Amino acid sequence: MNQSVWSRLDLVARSLFPFALSLLLVMASMVPLRVPDLSPIVPALSIVAIYYWVIYRPDLMPGWAVFLLGLIQDLLGGGPVGVHALVFLLLVAAVGGQRRFLATGSFGLVWFVFLPVAAICFFLIWALYCLNLGTIMDGRSVFFQYLTTVAVYPCLAWIFAQAQRALLR
Amino acid sequence: MKKPAGSISYIATPVRAWIHRFAFILLVASAFGLMLLGKADTVMVERARTAVTDAVVPLLDLASRPVDSFNGMVDSLREMADLRAENALLRRENDRLRNWQAVAQRLEAENTALRRLTQSVPDPGLRFITARVIGDPGGAFARSVLVNAGARDGVAKGQAAITSEGLAGRVAETGHRSARILLLSDINSRIPVLVGDGRDRAILAGDNSVQPRLVYLAPGVDVQLGDRVVTSGHGGAFPPGLPVGVVSQVGEGGLRIEPFVDWSHLEYLRLADYELSGFLSTPETRNGPATLEANRSGDQEGTQGGSQRAGR
Q1: Nearest to B265 among A30, A34, A133 (CB)
Q2: Which pTM value belongs to this model?
Q3: What pLDDT shows up at residue B308?
Q4: What percent of chain B has pLDDT over 70?
Q5: d(Cα B293, Cα B231) in Å, to the nearest integer?
Q6: B83 Cβ contact list (under 8 Å, min separation 6)
Q7: Which is higher by pLDDT, B126 or A122?
Q8: Which residues of chain B from 263 to 282 reach within 8 Å of chain A, CB to CB?
Protein backbone atom coordinates (compact mmCIF):
# COMPACT_ATOMS: atom_id res chain seq x y z
CA MET A 1 0.00 0.00 0.00
CA ASN A 2 2.68 2.42 1.16
CA GLN A 3 4.80 1.43 -1.75
CA SER A 4 2.02 2.17 -4.18
CA VAL A 5 1.39 5.64 -2.71
CA TRP A 6 5.03 6.53 -3.15
CA SER A 7 5.19 5.12 -6.61
CA ARG A 8 2.05 7.01 -7.53
CA LEU A 9 3.51 10.24 -6.15
CA ASP A 10 6.63 9.54 -8.11
CA LEU A 11 4.58 9.01 -11.23
CA VAL A 12 2.68 12.28 -10.70
CA ALA A 13 5.93 14.19 -10.13
CA ARG A 14 7.39 12.73 -13.28
CA SER A 15 4.34 13.47 -15.34
CA LEU A 16 4.32 17.08 -14.13
CA PHE A 17 7.93 17.46 -15.14
CA PRO A 18 7.44 18.87 -18.69
CA PHE A 19 4.99 21.49 -17.43
CA ALA A 20 7.23 22.41 -14.49
CA LEU A 21 10.27 22.69 -16.72
CA SER A 22 8.39 24.90 -19.19
CA LEU A 23 7.17 27.10 -16.34
CA LEU A 24 10.72 27.36 -15.07
CA LEU A 25 11.87 28.41 -18.55
CA VAL A 26 9.18 31.12 -18.69
CA MET A 27 10.53 32.49 -15.40
CA ALA A 28 14.17 31.97 -16.33
CA SER A 29 13.73 34.14 -19.39
CA MET A 30 12.61 36.92 -17.01
CA VAL A 31 15.98 37.10 -15.24
CA PRO A 32 17.68 40.30 -16.37
CA LEU A 33 20.98 39.33 -17.98
CA ARG A 34 22.07 42.93 -18.64
CA VAL A 35 23.75 41.94 -21.88
CA PRO A 36 23.65 44.93 -24.23
CA ASP A 37 20.82 44.72 -26.79
CA LEU A 38 19.88 41.15 -25.86
CA SER A 39 16.65 41.92 -24.05
CA PRO A 40 14.49 42.72 -27.12
CA ILE A 41 15.59 39.59 -28.97
CA VAL A 42 15.80 37.14 -26.08
CA PRO A 43 14.53 33.77 -27.43
CA ALA A 44 10.97 32.72 -26.61
CA LEU A 45 11.84 29.54 -24.73
CA SER A 46 8.23 28.63 -24.02
CA ILE A 47 7.45 28.15 -27.72
CA VAL A 48 10.36 25.70 -28.02
CA ALA A 49 9.30 23.85 -24.87
CA ILE A 50 5.67 23.49 -25.92
CA TYR A 51 6.60 22.43 -29.47
CA TYR A 52 8.97 19.76 -28.15
CA TRP A 53 6.68 18.26 -25.54
CA VAL A 54 3.61 18.28 -27.78
CA ILE A 55 5.52 16.20 -30.29
CA TYR A 56 7.19 13.75 -27.91
CA ARG A 57 4.90 13.58 -24.88
CA PRO A 58 1.54 15.18 -25.76
CA ASP A 59 -0.06 13.37 -22.82
CA LEU A 60 2.13 15.39 -20.45
CA MET A 61 1.47 18.73 -22.13
CA PRO A 62 -2.33 18.93 -22.18
CA GLY A 63 -4.38 21.93 -23.27
CA TRP A 64 -4.85 23.33 -19.77
CA ALA A 65 -1.09 23.28 -19.12
CA VAL A 66 -0.41 25.13 -22.37
CA PHE A 67 -3.16 27.63 -21.58
CA LEU A 68 -1.71 28.20 -18.11
CA LEU A 69 1.82 28.68 -19.48
CA GLY A 70 0.55 31.24 -21.97
CA LEU A 71 -1.46 33.04 -19.32
CA ILE A 72 1.50 33.26 -16.93
CA GLN A 73 3.69 34.50 -19.75
CA ASP A 74 1.12 37.17 -20.58
CA LEU A 75 0.72 38.26 -16.96
CA LEU A 76 4.46 38.38 -16.28
CA GLY A 77 5.37 39.93 -19.61
CA GLY A 78 3.07 42.90 -19.22
CA GLY A 79 1.41 42.54 -22.62
CA PRO A 80 -2.28 42.04 -23.36
CA VAL A 81 -3.67 39.03 -21.50
CA GLY A 82 -4.67 35.95 -23.48
CA VAL A 83 -2.43 36.49 -26.51
CA HIS A 84 0.20 33.90 -25.67
CA ALA A 85 -2.42 31.55 -24.24
CA LEU A 86 -4.30 31.61 -27.55
CA VAL A 87 -1.23 31.30 -29.75
CA PHE A 88 0.15 28.41 -27.68
CA LEU A 89 -3.17 26.58 -27.96
CA LEU A 90 -3.17 27.05 -31.72
CA LEU A 91 0.42 25.79 -31.80
CA VAL A 92 -0.67 22.65 -29.97
CA ALA A 93 -3.59 22.14 -32.32
CA ALA A 94 -1.41 22.56 -35.39
CA VAL A 95 1.51 20.41 -34.25
CA GLY A 96 -0.66 17.80 -32.50
CA GLY A 97 -2.23 16.84 -35.82
CA GLN A 98 1.16 16.01 -37.33
CA ARG A 99 2.85 14.58 -34.25
CA ARG A 100 2.96 10.95 -35.41
CA PHE A 101 4.88 12.03 -38.46
CA LEU A 102 7.17 14.35 -36.46
CA ALA A 103 7.81 12.05 -33.49
CA THR A 104 9.30 9.41 -35.76
CA GLY A 105 11.18 11.94 -37.88
CA SER A 106 14.85 12.84 -37.55
CA PHE A 107 16.05 15.73 -35.42
CA GLY A 108 16.76 17.78 -38.54
CA LEU A 109 13.24 17.32 -39.80
CA VAL A 110 11.70 18.39 -36.48
CA TRP A 111 13.89 21.47 -36.40
CA PHE A 112 13.06 22.22 -40.04
CA VAL A 113 9.33 22.05 -39.30
CA PHE A 114 9.91 24.32 -36.29
CA LEU A 115 10.97 27.13 -38.67
CA PRO A 116 7.52 27.78 -40.19
CA VAL A 117 5.71 26.85 -36.97
CA ALA A 118 7.64 29.42 -34.93
CA ALA A 119 7.27 31.97 -37.73
CA ILE A 120 3.49 31.57 -37.65
CA CYS A 121 3.48 31.82 -33.85
CA PHE A 122 5.47 35.05 -33.89
CA PHE A 123 3.33 36.46 -36.68
CA LEU A 124 0.15 35.67 -34.74
CA ILE A 125 1.49 37.22 -31.53
CA TRP A 126 2.58 40.28 -33.50
CA ALA A 127 -0.82 40.53 -35.23
CA LEU A 128 -2.74 40.17 -31.97
CA TYR A 129 -0.57 42.83 -30.29
CA CYS A 130 -1.14 45.17 -33.23
CA LEU A 131 -4.87 44.52 -33.05
CA ASN A 132 -4.83 45.20 -29.35
CA LEU A 133 -2.86 48.43 -29.67
CA GLY A 134 -4.60 49.64 -32.78
CA THR A 135 -1.29 50.42 -34.51
CA ILE A 136 1.19 48.56 -36.66
CA MET A 137 4.23 47.60 -34.62
CA ASP A 138 7.69 47.53 -36.10
CA GLY A 139 8.32 43.90 -37.01
CA ARG A 140 12.11 43.94 -37.15
CA SER A 141 12.85 43.00 -33.57
CA VAL A 142 10.09 40.37 -33.78
CA PHE A 143 11.99 38.87 -36.70
CA PHE A 144 15.25 38.89 -34.74
CA GLN A 145 13.55 37.29 -31.78
CA TYR A 146 12.27 34.62 -34.16
CA LEU A 147 15.81 33.99 -35.38
CA THR A 148 17.22 33.63 -31.86
CA THR A 149 14.36 31.30 -30.94
CA VAL A 150 15.04 29.09 -33.95
CA ALA A 151 18.77 29.16 -33.17
CA VAL A 152 18.27 28.11 -29.57
CA TYR A 153 16.02 25.17 -30.52
CA PRO A 154 18.76 22.47 -30.94
CA CYS A 155 20.30 23.31 -27.58
CA LEU A 156 17.00 23.21 -25.71
CA ALA A 157 15.78 20.14 -27.57
CA TRP A 158 18.94 18.33 -26.55
CA ILE A 159 18.36 19.22 -22.89
CA PHE A 160 14.72 18.11 -23.14
CA ALA A 161 15.75 14.84 -24.76
CA GLN A 162 18.24 14.12 -21.96
CA ALA A 163 15.64 14.94 -19.34
CA GLN A 164 13.06 12.79 -21.09
CA ARG A 165 15.47 9.86 -21.21
CA ALA A 166 16.42 10.25 -17.56
CA LEU A 167 13.01 10.86 -16.03
CA LEU A 168 10.22 9.80 -18.31
CA ARG A 169 11.23 6.48 -19.75
CA MET B 1 -18.69 -11.18 -14.53
CA LYS B 2 -15.90 -9.53 -16.40
CA LYS B 3 -17.05 -7.43 -19.29
CA PRO B 4 -15.02 -7.51 -22.43
CA ALA B 5 -12.81 -4.44 -22.47
CA GLY B 6 -13.49 -3.88 -26.12
CA SER B 7 -17.12 -2.83 -25.75
CA ILE B 8 -16.35 -0.16 -23.16
CA SER B 9 -13.56 1.36 -25.15
CA TYR B 10 -15.74 1.17 -28.23
CA ILE B 11 -18.04 3.75 -26.63
CA ALA B 12 -15.53 5.54 -24.40
CA THR B 13 -12.97 6.44 -27.04
CA PRO B 14 -15.17 8.68 -29.19
CA VAL B 15 -16.72 10.23 -26.06
CA ARG B 16 -13.31 10.98 -24.66
CA ALA B 17 -12.15 12.44 -27.95
CA TRP B 18 -15.26 14.57 -28.04
CA ILE B 19 -14.65 15.80 -24.47
CA HIS B 20 -11.05 16.58 -25.36
CA ARG B 21 -12.12 18.56 -28.36
CA PHE B 22 -14.77 20.40 -26.37
CA ALA B 23 -12.28 21.26 -23.59
CA PHE B 24 -9.85 22.53 -26.17
CA ILE B 25 -12.44 24.77 -27.81
CA LEU B 26 -13.41 26.01 -24.37
CA LEU B 27 -9.80 26.96 -23.64
CA VAL B 28 -9.45 28.79 -26.96
CA ALA B 29 -12.69 30.63 -26.23
CA SER B 30 -11.43 31.59 -22.77
CA ALA B 31 -8.21 32.94 -24.26
CA PHE B 32 -10.32 35.13 -26.56
CA GLY B 33 -12.51 36.08 -23.63
CA LEU B 34 -9.48 37.10 -21.59
CA MET B 35 -8.28 39.29 -24.42
CA LEU B 36 -11.61 41.11 -24.49
CA LEU B 37 -11.71 41.25 -20.70
CA GLY B 38 -8.24 42.79 -20.68
CA LYS B 39 -9.57 45.57 -22.87
CA ALA B 40 -12.76 46.08 -20.88
CA ASP B 41 -11.81 45.52 -17.25
CA THR B 42 -8.25 46.69 -16.83
CA VAL B 43 -8.46 46.80 -13.03
CA MET B 44 -9.13 43.08 -12.71
CA VAL B 45 -6.37 42.15 -15.14
CA GLU B 46 -3.99 44.44 -13.32
CA ARG B 47 -4.84 42.77 -10.03
CA ALA B 48 -4.18 39.34 -11.54
CA ARG B 49 -0.94 40.60 -13.01
CA THR B 50 0.35 42.04 -9.76
CA ALA B 51 -0.66 38.88 -7.88
CA VAL B 52 1.37 36.71 -10.25
CA THR B 53 4.28 39.15 -10.20
CA ASP B 54 4.26 39.31 -6.40
CA ALA B 55 4.34 35.51 -6.28
CA VAL B 56 7.28 35.26 -8.66
CA VAL B 57 9.33 38.14 -7.23
CA PRO B 58 11.15 36.17 -4.49
CA LEU B 59 12.29 33.64 -7.09
CA LEU B 60 13.42 36.32 -9.51
CA ASP B 61 15.12 38.21 -6.72
CA LEU B 62 17.11 35.11 -5.88
CA ALA B 63 17.89 34.27 -9.50
CA SER B 64 18.99 37.77 -10.45
CA ARG B 65 21.56 38.02 -7.65
CA PRO B 66 24.20 35.68 -9.09
CA VAL B 67 23.75 37.34 -12.50
CA ASP B 68 24.31 40.72 -10.89
CA SER B 69 27.41 39.63 -9.03
CA PHE B 70 28.80 37.99 -12.15
CA ASN B 71 28.20 41.17 -14.13
CA GLY B 72 29.76 43.19 -11.33
CA MET B 73 32.81 40.97 -11.50
CA VAL B 74 33.10 41.34 -15.27
CA ASP B 75 32.71 45.10 -14.95
CA SER B 76 35.36 45.40 -12.27
CA LEU B 77 37.78 43.27 -14.32
CA ARG B 78 37.18 45.49 -17.30
CA GLU B 79 37.69 48.59 -15.18
CA MET B 80 40.90 47.17 -13.77
CA ALA B 81 42.35 47.04 -17.27
CA ASP B 82 42.16 50.77 -17.85
CA LEU B 83 42.31 52.06 -14.33
CA ARG B 84 44.99 54.64 -15.09
CA ALA B 85 43.28 56.16 -18.07
CA GLU B 86 39.99 56.26 -16.25
CA ASN B 87 41.56 57.87 -13.22
CA ALA B 88 42.96 60.68 -15.34
CA LEU B 89 39.59 61.07 -17.03
CA LEU B 90 37.78 61.22 -13.71
CA ARG B 91 40.22 63.79 -12.38
CA ARG B 92 39.52 66.02 -15.35
CA GLU B 93 35.80 65.47 -14.99
CA ASN B 94 35.99 66.21 -11.28
CA ASP B 95 37.63 69.57 -11.99
CA ARG B 96 34.96 70.34 -14.52
CA LEU B 97 32.18 69.31 -12.16
CA ARG B 98 33.61 71.40 -9.35
CA ASN B 99 33.29 74.43 -11.59
CA TRP B 100 29.74 73.37 -12.33
CA GLN B 101 29.01 72.96 -8.65
CA ALA B 102 30.09 76.52 -7.98
CA VAL B 103 27.87 77.72 -10.80
CA ALA B 104 24.96 75.59 -9.54
CA GLN B 105 25.29 76.89 -6.00
CA ARG B 106 25.35 80.46 -7.23
CA LEU B 107 22.32 79.85 -9.45
CA GLU B 108 20.47 78.10 -6.66
CA ALA B 109 21.03 80.99 -4.28
CA GLU B 110 19.89 83.37 -6.99
CA ASN B 111 16.89 81.18 -7.72
CA THR B 112 15.92 81.09 -4.04
CA ALA B 113 16.22 84.83 -3.79
CA LEU B 114 14.12 85.35 -6.90
CA ARG B 115 11.50 82.86 -5.72
CA ARG B 116 11.23 84.70 -2.47
CA LEU B 117 10.97 87.98 -4.34
CA THR B 118 8.16 86.75 -6.55
CA GLN B 119 6.55 84.66 -3.81
CA SER B 120 6.29 81.68 -6.12
CA VAL B 121 4.78 78.45 -4.86
CA PRO B 122 7.57 76.04 -3.91
CA ASP B 123 7.76 72.72 -5.70
CA PRO B 124 6.70 69.79 -3.57
CA GLY B 125 9.56 67.90 -1.99
CA LEU B 126 11.09 64.97 -3.81
CA ARG B 127 11.60 61.65 -2.14
CA PHE B 128 13.31 58.68 -3.72
CA ILE B 129 12.67 54.99 -3.31
CA THR B 130 15.57 52.91 -4.54
CA ALA B 131 14.63 49.54 -6.00
CA ARG B 132 16.57 46.75 -7.66
CA VAL B 133 15.62 45.57 -11.12
CA ILE B 134 14.90 41.86 -10.76
CA GLY B 135 12.94 40.99 -13.86
CA ASP B 136 13.11 41.82 -17.53
CA PRO B 137 10.45 40.05 -19.59
CA GLY B 138 12.43 40.84 -22.72
CA GLY B 139 11.05 39.98 -26.12
CA ALA B 140 10.12 42.10 -29.07
CA PHE B 141 6.67 43.14 -27.94
CA ALA B 142 7.01 45.19 -24.78
CA ARG B 143 9.64 47.06 -22.84
CA SER B 144 9.21 46.83 -19.11
CA VAL B 145 11.12 45.69 -16.05
CA LEU B 146 10.12 44.47 -12.62
CA VAL B 147 11.56 45.95 -9.45
CA ASN B 148 11.59 44.56 -5.93
CA ALA B 149 9.73 47.41 -4.25
CA GLY B 150 5.99 47.77 -4.15
CA ALA B 151 3.12 49.46 -2.38
CA ARG B 152 4.53 48.52 1.02
CA ASP B 153 7.61 50.60 0.24
CA GLY B 154 5.66 53.61 -0.94
CA VAL B 155 5.77 52.91 -4.65
CA ALA B 156 2.72 54.23 -6.46
CA LYS B 157 1.50 54.17 -10.02
CA GLY B 158 2.78 57.03 -12.14
CA GLN B 159 6.03 57.71 -10.29
CA ALA B 160 9.06 58.43 -12.45
CA ALA B 161 11.79 55.79 -12.56
CA ILE B 162 15.23 57.30 -13.00
CA THR B 163 18.84 56.19 -13.09
CA SER B 164 21.89 58.34 -12.50
CA GLU B 165 21.88 59.12 -16.23
CA GLY B 166 18.28 60.16 -16.62
CA LEU B 167 14.68 59.09 -16.90
CA ALA B 168 14.08 55.38 -17.56
CA GLY B 169 10.31 55.09 -17.39
CA ARG B 170 7.37 55.22 -15.04
CA VAL B 171 5.65 52.91 -12.62
CA ALA B 172 2.82 51.19 -14.48
CA GLU B 173 1.59 48.65 -11.93
CA THR B 174 2.19 48.28 -8.24
CA GLY B 175 1.94 45.05 -6.33
CA HIS B 176 2.51 44.59 -2.64
CA ARG B 177 6.23 43.90 -2.94
CA SER B 178 6.89 44.44 -6.63
CA ALA B 179 6.20 46.98 -9.31
CA ARG B 180 6.35 47.05 -13.07
CA ILE B 181 8.21 49.91 -14.70
CA LEU B 182 7.06 50.78 -18.19
CA LEU B 183 10.25 51.90 -19.92
CA LEU B 184 10.09 55.06 -22.01
CA SER B 185 10.86 53.03 -25.13
CA ASP B 186 7.71 50.89 -24.74
CA ILE B 187 5.04 51.30 -27.37
CA ASN B 188 2.53 52.34 -24.68
CA SER B 189 4.77 54.95 -23.08
CA ARG B 190 3.82 58.64 -23.42
CA ILE B 191 5.75 61.24 -21.45
CA PRO B 192 5.27 65.02 -21.59
CA VAL B 193 8.63 66.67 -22.25
CA LEU B 194 10.26 70.00 -23.06
CA VAL B 195 12.67 70.23 -25.98
CA GLY B 196 15.77 72.40 -26.25
CA ASP B 197 16.45 75.85 -24.89
CA GLY B 198 13.13 77.06 -26.24
CA ARG B 199 11.43 74.61 -23.84
CA ASP B 200 8.89 73.64 -26.46
CA ARG B 201 6.29 71.18 -25.28
CA ALA B 202 6.12 67.75 -26.87
CA ILE B 203 5.21 64.19 -26.05
CA LEU B 204 7.84 61.49 -25.99
CA ALA B 205 6.21 58.42 -27.50
CA GLY B 206 7.90 55.04 -27.36
CA ASP B 207 7.61 52.56 -30.23
CA ASN B 208 9.65 49.63 -28.83
CA SER B 209 12.78 50.89 -30.58
CA VAL B 210 15.77 52.21 -28.65
CA GLN B 211 15.12 55.73 -29.89
CA PRO B 212 11.63 56.98 -28.99
CA ARG B 213 9.80 59.55 -31.10
CA LEU B 214 8.91 63.13 -30.28
CA VAL B 215 5.35 63.90 -31.28
CA TYR B 216 2.76 66.67 -30.95
CA LEU B 217 5.34 69.41 -31.28
CA ALA B 218 3.80 72.77 -32.18
CA PRO B 219 4.21 73.54 -35.91
CA GLY B 220 7.08 75.82 -36.77
CA VAL B 221 9.20 74.87 -33.79
CA ASP B 222 12.83 74.53 -34.79
CA VAL B 223 14.43 71.46 -33.27
CA GLN B 224 18.16 70.88 -33.73
CA LEU B 225 20.21 67.71 -33.45
CA GLY B 226 21.61 67.46 -29.96
CA ASP B 227 18.86 69.50 -28.29
CA ARG B 228 18.34 68.37 -24.71
CA VAL B 229 15.00 66.86 -23.79
CA VAL B 230 13.77 67.04 -20.18
CA THR B 231 10.50 66.11 -18.49
CA SER B 232 8.01 68.94 -18.41
CA GLY B 233 6.15 67.95 -15.28
CA HIS B 234 2.80 68.39 -17.03
CA GLY B 235 0.34 65.92 -15.67
CA GLY B 236 1.70 66.26 -12.17
CA ALA B 237 3.22 62.87 -11.52
CA PHE B 238 6.71 63.61 -12.82
CA PRO B 239 9.09 66.17 -11.38
CA PRO B 240 9.91 68.75 -14.07
CA GLY B 241 13.42 68.97 -15.47
CA LEU B 242 14.49 65.33 -15.25
CA PRO B 243 16.99 64.70 -18.04
CA VAL B 244 15.58 62.35 -20.69
CA GLY B 245 17.89 62.45 -23.70
CA VAL B 246 19.09 64.39 -26.72
CA VAL B 247 17.50 64.78 -30.11
CA SER B 248 19.23 62.29 -32.39
CA GLN B 249 17.19 62.45 -35.57
CA VAL B 250 15.39 65.28 -37.31
CA GLY B 251 13.83 65.52 -40.73
CA GLU B 252 11.53 63.41 -42.85
CA GLY B 253 11.55 60.33 -40.65
CA GLY B 254 10.25 62.34 -37.72
CA LEU B 255 12.00 63.44 -34.57
CA ARG B 256 13.72 60.85 -32.46
CA ILE B 257 15.72 61.10 -29.28
CA GLU B 258 18.60 59.12 -27.86
CA PRO B 259 17.81 58.54 -24.18
CA PHE B 260 20.57 59.13 -21.62
CA VAL B 261 19.72 55.94 -19.78
CA ASP B 262 21.96 52.94 -20.39
CA TRP B 263 19.55 50.05 -21.00
CA SER B 264 22.13 47.33 -20.49
CA HIS B 265 23.08 48.54 -17.01
CA LEU B 266 19.63 48.94 -15.58
CA GLU B 267 20.45 47.54 -12.16
CA TYR B 268 18.93 49.96 -9.69
CA LEU B 269 16.14 52.42 -10.32
CA ARG B 270 15.18 55.38 -8.21
CA LEU B 271 11.45 55.96 -8.11
CA ALA B 272 10.71 59.64 -7.62
CA ASP B 273 7.81 60.30 -5.34
CA TYR B 274 6.67 63.76 -6.26
CA GLU B 275 2.94 63.93 -5.86
CA LEU B 276 1.45 65.46 -2.76
CA SER B 277 -0.52 62.33 -2.13
CA GLY B 278 -1.82 60.97 1.13
CA PHE B 279 0.23 57.82 1.31
CA LEU B 280 3.33 59.82 2.19
CA SER B 281 2.24 60.02 5.77
CA THR B 282 1.10 56.43 6.20
CA PRO B 283 3.15 54.60 8.83
CA GLU B 284 4.25 51.75 6.51
CA THR B 285 5.90 54.11 4.09
CA ARG B 286 7.66 55.99 6.85
CA ASN B 287 9.15 52.82 8.27
CA GLY B 288 9.42 51.04 4.92
CA PRO B 289 12.29 48.59 4.47
CA ALA B 290 13.43 50.05 1.17
CA THR B 291 16.10 52.69 1.02
CA LEU B 292 14.04 55.76 1.51
CA GLU B 293 16.01 58.90 1.24
CA ALA B 294 14.13 62.03 2.15
CA ASN B 295 15.97 63.88 -0.50
CA ARG B 296 15.43 67.45 -1.27
CA SER B 297 18.14 69.13 -3.16
CA GLY B 298 18.14 72.26 -1.37
CA ASP B 299 16.29 75.28 -0.41
CA GLN B 300 14.59 75.86 2.84
CA GLU B 301 11.11 76.20 1.47
CA GLY B 302 11.39 72.73 0.02
CA THR B 303 12.54 71.17 3.27
CA GLN B 304 9.79 72.86 5.16
CA GLY B 305 7.28 71.68 2.61
CA GLY B 306 8.55 68.14 3.01
CA SER B 307 8.37 68.09 6.78
CA GLN B 308 4.93 69.62 6.77
CA ARG B 309 3.71 66.85 4.56
CA ALA B 310 5.35 64.19 6.66
CA GLY B 311 3.80 65.59 9.79
CA ARG B 312 0.34 65.70 8.32
Answers
A1: A34
A2: 0.81
A3: 36
A4: 83
A5: 22
A6: none
A7: A122
A8: 263-267
- Check A86 against B35: CB less than 8 A apart: yes
Question: Per DSSP, what are the bridge partners of residue B229?
Answer: B195, B245
Q: Is the pLDDT of residue B246 over 50?
A: yes
The pLDDT of residue B6 is 52
Q: Do B137 and A29 touch (CB under 8 A)?
A: yes
In chain B, where does DSSP find H-type helix?
Answer: 5-40, 42-81, 83-118, 283-286, 300-311
Reported ipTM: 0.87
Distance from CA of A30 to the nearest CA of B (A): 5
Using the Cβ of A37 and the Cβ atoms of chain B, whether some distance falls under 8 Å is answered with yes
Provide Rg for chain A, Cα atoms.
17
* Of the candidate ranges A61-75, B243-257, B282-296, the one whose mean pLDDT is the lowest: B282-296
CA-to-CA distance for B21 and B25, rounded, in angstroms?
6
Put simply, the chain B residues between 9 and 68 with a CB less than 8 A from any chain A CB are: 20, 23-24, 27-28, 30-35, 37-39, 45, 48-49, 52-53, 56, 59-60, 63-64, 67-68
Q: What is the DSSP string of B52-94?
A: HHHHHHHHHHHHHHHHHHHHHHHHHHHHHHTHHHHHHHHHHHH
Helix (H, G, I), strand (E, B) or coil at B161: strand
Answer yes or no: do A75 and B49 touch at CB < 8 A. Answer: yes
**Which tens digits make up the pLDDT trace of A36-50?**
778 888 899 999 999
- The minimal CB distance from A32 to the residues B32, B59, B135 is found for B135
Alpha carbon distance B88, B84 (integer Å): 6
% chain B with pLDDT above 90: 40
pLDDT (0 to 100) of residue B8 = 61
β-pair type (B291-293, B167-174): unpaired
Cross-strand partners of B249: B256
